[in-house]
Specification:
The protein is of the alpha+beta class and 144 residues long. 52% of the residues lie in helices and 12% in strands. The protein has five helices and four strands. Strands 1-2-4-3 form a four-stranded antiparallel β-sheet, with helices on one face. Helix 1 crosses helix 2 and helix 2 runs parallel beside helix 5. The protein is elongated and about 55 Å long.
């Protein structure tokens, strides 16, 4: 699959171009280390901020561990996840709703019949300002 190989090489070159080091491998490792730290910090800010909003319950472990995916799931009292996502989308914020193939955990938590959870994922292009916008939008939703 020549197209996939070319795309993979371009992605690795892009990542390497963001890092420091003598070799491509060193630059990729440097970039990935810095990106992981940045994503982790932003996700922790989101996690903590959501926990401070009355009516919002964060699902999943905190960001105490450095080895935590920068994805945050939550439920909002009185709101189906699809409606939370719609509210966020109207403010140009991309979020997902559902069970994310974790049907049994959703059943055990009593969330499957409620539509699952709302989920936000942090990536290399996200900013602190965007986290503040998400938290503001959710405060607006829960207050109204």
């Amino acid at each position: 699959n020549h197209a996939a190989l070319a795309g993979t090489r371009a992605a690795v070159d892009y990542i390497a171009g963001l890092g420091a080091g003598a070799s491509r491998r060193e630059r990729v490792v440097d970039t990935m280390t810095r990106l992981a730290a940045c994503e982790h910090a932003l996700a922790a800010t989101l996690y903590d901020g959501l926990g401070d909003i009355p009516g919002v319950t964060v699902i999943g472990p905190s960001f105490v561990s450095r080895h935590r995916a920068p994805t945050v799931s939550f439920v909002t009292e009185g709101w189906d996840p699809v409606d939370v996502c719609r509210h966020l989308a109207e403010r140009a914020i991309c979020a997902w709703d559902g069970h994310f193939y974790a049907i049994r955990p959703m059943e055990v938590l009593g969330l499957l019949e409620r539509g699952g959870v709302t989920r936000l994922g942090i990536s290399l292009y996200n900013t602190e300002a965007e986290i503040r916008r998400v938290l503001s939008a959710l405060r607006e939703l829960t207050a109204g």
